[in-house]
Amino acid sequence: MLTKANVSLTTLDIGGHHKNRELLTATIGGASAIIFMVDTLDTQRFEEAASGLHALSVTKGLEGVPFLVPGNKIDCPGASTWLLGVF
Questions:
Q1: What is the per-residue pLDDT for 16?
Q2: How many structural domains compose the chain?
Q3: In angstroms, rounded to a whole number, what is the distance separating the alpha carbons of residues 23 and 28?
Q4: SS3 3
Q5: CA-based nearest residue to 45, from 32, 33, 36
Q6: pLDDT, tens digit only, all 87 positions of the chain
Q7: What distances in angstroms separate CA 34 from CA 23, 53, 76, one per listed residue?
Q8: What is the pTM of this model?
Q9: Residue 70 has what pLDDT?
Q10: What is the SS3 string spanning 60-73?
Q11: pLDDT attached to residue 17
Q12: For residues 76 and 43, is the Cβ–Cβ distance under 8 A?
């Protein structure tokens, strides 16, 4: 946990593989915001990322929670900007 002034931030870094989804749903309750990072170089997993994001967006207890969907590695040669119009 990181605390600065009156703001506390707790982060969980959970990979996007299917084996981690159960862990994610067990620990996500009570979140104030979700940052869903997408690897812009791994275009073969875009559909999986979209499916995972959708599943999170309809998860009980996350109603009204804001989502931020940044793409990492966007500055690398070969990075896809396709995600800009999807999420």
A1: 63
A2: 1
A3: 9
A4: strand
A5: 36
A6: 778 888 887 777 766 666 666 666 666 777 788 888 888 888 888 888 888 888 888 888 888 888 888 888 888 888 887 666 554
A7: 15, 10, 24
A8: 0.72
A9: 86
A10: CCCCCCCEECCEEC
A11: 63
A12: no
Structure tokens at 76: 């690398």
Q: Contacts by 45-54 with C-beta closer than 8 Å and gap 24+?
A: 45/16, 46/80, 46/82, 46/83, 46/86, 48/16, 49/16, 50/86, 50/87, 52/16, 52/21, 53/87
Q: What six digits make up the tokens of 53?
A: 């994001």
The C-alpha atoms of residue 24 and residue 7 are separated, in whole angstroms, by: 23
For residue 57, give the CATH number of its domain.
Answer: 3.40.50.300
Q: Quote the domain boundaries for residue 73.
A: 2-85
Cβ(9)–Cβ(42) under 8 Å? no
